[in-house]
Amino acid sequence: MNVHRIEVIILDINDNSPSFFEQSLSMDISELLSPGERYLLPVAVDADIGSNSVKTYKLSPNEHFSLDVQTGGEHGVSAELVLQKALDREKQPIIKLILTAVDGGKPARSGTLELTVNVIDVNDNTPLFSKSLYKVRVEENAPPHTFVIKLNATDLDEGTNGKVLYSFIKRGNIDPLDIFDLNPETGEITVKGKIDFEETPAYEVRVQAKDQGASPRSAHAKLLIEIIDVNDNAPEIYVTSLMTPVKEDAEMGTIVAFITGSDKDGGTNDITACNVVGSVPFKLKSNYKNDYSLVVDGPLDRENISFYNVTIMATDEGSPPLSSIRIITVEVSDVNDNTPRFMESVINVYVKENSPTGLVIFKINAVDPDLDSNAKLSYALLDSSLKNIQISSVLNINSETGEIISLQSFNFEELKAFQFRVQATDSGVPPLSSKATINVLILDENDNIPTILAPYSEHGTVNSENIPYSAEAGYFVAKIRAVDADSGYNALLSYHVSEPKGNNLFRIGTSTGEIRTKRRMSDNDLKTHPLVVLVSDNGEPSLSATVSIDVVVVESTADIQTQFRHVPTKEDSFSDLNLYLLIAIVSVSAIFLLSLISLIAVRCHRTDGSFSRYSAPMITTHPDGSWSYSKSTQQYDVCFSSDTLKSDVVVFPPPFPPVDGELISINGGDTFTRTQTLPNNEKVSGF
């Protein structure tokens, strides 16, 4: 079997027209594209082959596009749409074109494609505000949501390219969104936060209108919002250069501080007037507008008031007016303008005799109302009433504490009182000082034993006295006299017969020392009676001395001999009494004159009036021989017996006032009287 292949070639004729798969084609081309842009067009299909297939393309006439036909190649004939002129959607948003495909047959056949070019809008138009500058006024403290202004901007583009949104542009540290609300779609601006004229009197805000295109465009405008002031701020007071503390001796007009009144409000609301409130030694002096000087307007005294709280009030001229207060503390510094002051100008100090050396007898204290060094005191001893003796050898004073220290032991029997002055000096510049007078009164101690006076001697020697056998009861035998160098109760003596015990023949006057018989003699009595007389003082502890006397009984008075003494008769006793009274009166008169002269001298030389409160003493002599010491409301009466041999009279010349409890007159065996008149005119007497 044989197989033969036969190839039949069919010759084409142009019986088919070119055709496109779709009858129409829509193309979106942006108006933003520049000329020269190319777009590949669909290829037409022709069933014929060879020269009868599609040979070329043709484009309907227009001003924006041209056709670039490419022949040959593996893909046959193709066409590209070329942009010749930039598109403008705002002028021609749609362009209609006809693309024709022509084959090479004879006659040629063709097919068409309707091209619709949609010009895609490009955001090539910028939004435009109706005004480049918006001005509006808003009252401060306007409540939220208060309408301010509505912005208006337009855009020729369409769709999102023409949709405008509004916004604020933040500049600096102020964000307008903190104060105002802006509706981004409507452009309406309302109040959001607190509007304060004092913080910002005006807001210059940049606003933006921006479209929503792929390449968004924006426009800007200026918004000036002026704030209308309201008097909502009280004035403020500022203090500069506060010169405190101020010396208490500052002169009138001395500047203390500079004061400025300020108000954050505007217009008449910020006009401020300042003044000092209350009664203080300061005032405000106007310098310029709201500037003032706080100056001293009265005397200052730190010791009375050490600081002042000065109240300053500032008031504006708003309606209604507002005011504020500020308190300034002005301290007053110390000046050495006060002299140290003692609590008393005359001080009495009592020191016991025989006190040990180094004893602090007194601590003097002065006060100074000043401060610091102006009040730091030092003490010093000045002149003394001791003659020919330096006070520094007797006393010493601690210059810092004021303690007065004795440098020797005092003996009342030698020195009963003395006077000196103390000076207190501060450490200020210049230093100030004052003086005080100190009277040192030595208090007696019972350190002396009684002394037996002649014609009798103390224990160890026998003294003899004779009495007649016929002596009656009360017959005077002898008189014992003794003295004590002490004073007061320590020198008050009493007499007792210590031996023999139970003696019933003789008695002795306890205060007079007179020995007398108790009864007549009897035959059973001894011819010689030894007596021991004990003389005791009234001190604590009591000191005493003894004397021995042998009393011899004789038959007649002719046998009585006065070997050791003359027996006193009534005439002798009376004569002795007159003598003693005369001596006492002369002594007291001399002391009174000396005291009076001393008082006059002191009054002439002292200017501080230290002794002015003590009245002059008065001594009165009574018909019975006694005398009285009177001063102010105190009276001292002293009586002397006829046999007084010694009397210690303590008279305090000014400025030494009598001291309660101090004895005025002491004598060996005599009586004394002390009378004191109390404030209610009652009298108390001691014996």
Keywords:
five-stranded antiparallel beta sheet, mainly beta, four-stranded mixed beta sheet, Immunoglobulin-like, disordered C terminus, 6% helix, 6 domains, 687 residues, single chain
Can you characterise this structure?
The chain has 687 residues and is mainly beta. It has 6 domains: 24-120, Cadherins (Immunoglobulin-like, Sandwich), CATH 2.60.40; 128-228, Sandwich (Immunoglobulin-like); 236-333, Cadherins (Immunoglobulin-like, Sandwich); 341-443, Immunoglobulin-like, CATH 2.60.40.60; 451-567, Cadherins (Immunoglobulin-like, Sandwich), CATH 2.60.40.60; 573-686, no CATH class. A 5-stranded antiparallel β-sheet has the order 43-44-45-48-49, covered by helices on one side. The chain has a 4-stranded mixed β-sheet with strand order 1-7-6-3, with no helix packed on it. A 4-stranded mixed β-sheet has the order 9-16-15-12, with no helix packed on it. Residues 561-575 and 607-687 have low confidence and may be disordered.
Concise synopsis of the structure shown:
With 687 residues, this protein is mainly beta. It has six domains: 24-120, Cadherins (Immunoglobulin-like, Sandwich); 128-228, Sandwich (Immunoglobulin-like), CATH 2.60.40.60; 236-333, Sandwich (Immunoglobulin-like), CATH 2.60.40.60; 341-443, Cadherins (Immunoglobulin-like, Sandwich); 451-567, Sandwich (Immunoglobulin-like); 573-686, no CATH class.
